[in-house]
Design brief:
Layout (H helix, E strand, L loop, with lengths): L1 H10 L5 H15 L9 H17 L5 H16 L8 H18 L3
Helix pairs in contact: 1-2, 2-3, 3-4, 4-5
Length: about 110
């Protein structure tokens, strides 16, 4: 339920964008209290990947800190989505990670 709420908050066209994304982050973090790497590694990794994209989009706060959190989340997701096992997800996450590193000039 929390991941669904997070997706809704992130895509909500009305209201304050920063506030909506902050709520999405809170929902994703709540979901990660239940979804663990041990009980559902793919859902756990996807939740981290989704959380990373929300941190990327968050307009408020310290931009560099938000991007650093996005990178951290995407790297966690890549730890589960290996290129050999799930190339489509792994490459998608790697593209997002590369984009964020380019934005930060962190390459």
């Amino acid at each position: 339920i929390q991941t669904s709420l997070a997706a809704l908050w992130a895509s909500l066209p009305a209201g304050d964008r920063a506030e909506n994304l902050a709520r999405s982050i809170a929902c994703r973090q709540a979901a990660l209290e239940v979804i663990t790497k041990e009980n559902d590694p793919e859902a756990w990794a996807q939740a981290h990947a989704d959380l990373g994209l929300v941190w990327l989009d968050l307009p408020g706060g310290e931009r560099d800190e938000n991007l650093a959190k996005a990178i951290e989340c995407l790297k966690v997701a890549l730890g589960v989505f290996a290129l050999d096992d799930n190339p489509q997800r792994a490459l998608g996450i790697q593209v997002n990670l590369s984009w964020i590193q380019l934005l930060r000039q962190d390459y």
